[in-house]
Specification:
Layout lengths: L14 H54 L7 E2 L5 E4 L2 E9 L11 E5 L8 E6 L23 E7 L2 E6 L15 E5 L3 E6 L2 E5 L11 H4 L7 E5 L8 E5 L8 E5 L8
Amino acid sequence: MQLLLRLSSQRGFTLIELIIAMMVLSILAIGSVQFIGLSARSYVDTLERSGTSSRASIINEKINRFIHSALPNSLRVTADGSCIESLPILAATTYVAAPIVGNAASSNQVSLVTIDSLLANAGYGVIYPTANNSVLYNNQRNPGRISSEVMSLQSSLNGESIFVFANGASFQFEQPSVKNRFFMVNSPTAICQFGEYIFLYQNYGFIPSINNLQASLPSQLPNRWLLANNIQPSSLTFNVSVSTLKRNGLVSYEYTLQASQV
């Protein structure tokens, strides 16, 4: 019998092969970590962009509502464009009889087509149109374009409502409206930027000159409300183009958002 011996040998990695394997594994590990890191960074950036977009949408909606509710031709801005002021409309109707210079109507009441019960039944009276908005912010003029006192509902009958001026005051409007248009408005409100904040101001009274607006604004609640924060300082600017015979008035504004600081 012939015995065949089969010899087998075991062979390990050489040092060079081990180094190459370690390098390949290191490259794969680094690539995997970078891929995960970039994916996470991309996700975080997407969330930040989404949050910034949502913030901008909310700010725009608040400013747009402020502008849309303004009495026609009442919008005005400060010289640096950082503040815009308006007279918010509470209700709109037509007048039947009003104390206007040159007519015989009673000077202490206004007869209006009845306003919807869901709307305000008290406010300052304005006969539209008004070409010069500076006269709207001076309620001490009599005759004037805006009533010197708040009007409130006294009685209603047959689709007609009688409003009287507060404190029994007498007042005359300077000019009539061709279409008898009449507005009930609130006291002035303003939106301004101070530092990185945008505030909404109210209940500060009538300020005839826009140049004195910023110095006269309230500094705390309940008459100053935070509208937005994390705004780049001095980036908010408003611009108002008055209406013409061919188009309505235009309002443009811009601001720059900055990253939230945690």
